[in-house]
Design goal:
Layout (H helix, E strand, L loop, with lengths): L2 H11 L4 H8 L3 H9 L12 H10 L4 H7 L8 H17 L1 H9 L5 H16 L1
Helix pairs in contact: 1-3, 2-3, 4-5, 6-7, 6-8
Length: 127
């Protein structure tokens, strides 16, 4: 299911207008409409940011991870989100000696692999 399909289906199942769903997600009705159409204001294919996915996941009461796992959207991050994700990873590395050691051992990892390792370490600490 794509993000577009999910929003449309959710709205139909809950008898919600685009405006009501947008208010619930803290987004504009135009953003929701664009996502459903899959086209941005410029007429080009829509690329949602991770913050958009998070807002929608929060609005429908799902964890961000469960929400992303449910979608087969090939979630693509906008360039700003990639920089934000990298900044988050760098902050984790500053704060966590264990993650720095792990990175040192596996210095050939891609940024995505580092992010996933950081998430795994976080989940291990929570459990």
């Amino acid at each position: 299911m794509t993000l577009s399909e999910f929003i449309r289906q959710y709205r139909e199942e809950h008898d919600m207008s685009i405006r009501a769903f947008a208010a619930m997600a803290g987004m504009s009705p135009q953003q929701i409409s664009n996502i459903e159409k899959g086209v941005g204001n410029n007429g080009k294919p829509m690329t949602s940011t991770m913050s958009t996915y998070k807002k929608i996941a929060d609005a429908v009461g799902m964890s961000e991870q469960d929400f992303l796992n449910m979608l087969n959207d090939n979630v693509a991050m906008a360039p700003d989100d990639e920089e934000e994700e990298l900044a988050d990873v760098l902050q984790l590395l500053k704060d966590r000696e264990d993650l720095r050691a792990l990175l040192h051992v596996s210095a050939r990892n891609t940024p995505e692999q580092v992010r996933r390792l950081a998430q795994l370490m976080e989940s291990m600490n929570e459990g």
